[in-house]
Amino acid sequence: MVTHRMVEAFRAVMQAGSVTRAAGMLNVSQPSVSRLLADLEAGLGLRLFDRRGTRLTATTDGIELYAEVERSFIGLARVVDTAGQIRSRHAGVLSVATMPALGNTLLPAVLRGFQALPGAPVVRLHIVPSQQALGMLAQRRCDVVFSSMAPAAEIGREVASFPMRGRLILPARHPLAAGAGPLTPEALDGVPMVALAANSLVRVETERAFAQRGAAFRVAIETMQAFSAAQLVQEGFGCAVVDPMTARAHEAAGGVSRPFEPAIDFAFGAYAWRPGDQGDWMARFVTAVAAAVSSLPAD
């Protein structure tokens, strides 16, 4: 009969690379580990290791079995993690996953006001890319996510949507910084730009807008996140089209932002998998985020 202890010993040897180190990991003697391995091979009817003196080398069967064992242990770790999330909800913890554009700009002030509410739960904040946030929602590792991508219906439901339009950010001393009206691709023809990743929807739409107006979109430097783009703009690398939240933070740091035409749509949503024990607090948190977003320029 194969026991969990045998599998545990096998995994430890594969991870440690030797019976000696595996015994130390498991806090047992080397003969005990060797016996557990032998019993496992006998129980499975497989030769998992080649033995040359005191050295063990995993066979092809052993390597294949280890991959399955790891999947099982990862599954167990997820069960433990999920249980921790459930305990957190009962203990008054609201778990939030958010895209960086929100987490690095408006959210700190939102959190300050939210946590001042009587009886407010502790917020566990994860600032991660939208795709990773949706993965956390699918695994039930958070109560609500703010993402620029919508999840599949079976993963979560939309509880709020936040449409907005992009703005152009510039260094304070840029020749185009003066004025308040919209800037167009024609005005930015050949001007150095700090661009988001080539596969991002914002980059695609911005390049399309330039192409449709016959203007050259000149990339000076490329970065993955709007927050990084704003820092590069501050350093004088060029201008960038970013979301209004990042534009607000850029202005607070002494930069300039202006409307951009034609409109580049930025939108994100709040998604949850069920109201749960923190349903009321989750709704209040989403409302607080909505209030902060409503303070942004509409153009």
Characterise this structure.
The chain starts with a helix and ends in a 5-residue tail after the last helix. It folds into three domains: 80 residues, Arc Repressor Mutant, subunit A (Orthogonal Bundle), CATH 1.10.10.10; 101 residues, D-Maltodextrin-Binding Protein, domain 2 (3-Layer(aba) Sandwich); 97 residues, Periplasmic binding protein-like II (D-Maltodextrin-Binding Protein, domain 2), CATH 3.40.190. The chain is of the alpha/beta class and 299 residues long. The mean pLDDT is 87. Helix content is 45%, strand content 21%. Helix 9 runs parallel beside helix 10. The chain has eleven helices and twelve strands. The strands form four sheets. It has a five-stranded mixed β-sheet with strand order 4-3-5-12-6, sandwiched between helices. Strands 10-7-11 form a three-stranded antiparallel β-sheet. The protein is elongated, with a radius of gyration of 27 Å. A hairpin with a 2-residue loop joins strand 1 and strand 2.
Strand order of the largest sheet: 4-3-5-12-6
For the record, the count of structural domains works out to: 3
N-end to C-end Cα span: 69 Å
Which residues sit in consecutive blocks of at least 5 with pLDDT less than 50? none
Structural class: alpha/beta
What is the CATH architecture assignment of the largest domain?
3-Layer(aba) Sandwich
> What's the story with the biggest beta sheet?
5 strands, mixed
Radius of gyration, CA atoms, in whole angstroms? 27 Å
Organism: Falsiroseomonas algicola
Protein name: LysR family transcriptional regulator
Pfam families: HTH_1, LysR_substrate
GO molecular function: DNA-binding transcription factor activity; sequence-specific DNA binding
